[in-house]
Phytocyanin domain-containing protein
Amino acid sequence: MAPWQRLLALVVAVALPVFSMAADIMVGGSTDGWRPGVNYTEWAEGMEFIVGDRLVFSYPAGLHNVITVDEEAFRSCSAPAGANALVSGHDAVSLNSSGRKWYMCGKADHCSKGQRLLIDVMPLVTVYSTSTSARTDPRSAFTALISAVLLFVMP
C-alpha cells in the first residue's frame, strides 16, 4: 500500500467515529415518559438538543397529548383554540430549526401539574471533539476530511 493510501486510511479511521447522526430523545427518559408530576426543566438541564433530533413523547394514548405552543401559551398553560394535538401515545416531533421550543399537554390541568417542556435547540455545526456527545454536519465533515487528505496527497 502506498504511503498516501495508508495516510488516507488513518485519517478516515480517526475521523469517522466523530460523526454521529441525529438522535431520538425520549422526553422524560425511559422511566418517566410524558406525564404530570415530572420536572421536565430539570430533566432537560444539561441536555443538548440539535437541529435534526427528534423528541419522542411516550404516554398511554388517550390520557395525554402533545401540543406545540408559543411562549405565552406555555406560561399560561392554555393551548390556543384549534391547536393541533398529537395523540398517538408515541409522538415523534422533529426539531427542524434552532431556537426555543415549547410543548405542553392540553388535557385537564396536566400542564399546571408540570406536563410541559421548554428546550433550546442548537443549530447543527461542525465540531471536532473527543466527547461522545459531539455531533457534526456530515457534509461539512466530509468536505473537511477530503481537504485534509488532499493536503497530503497533492505535490
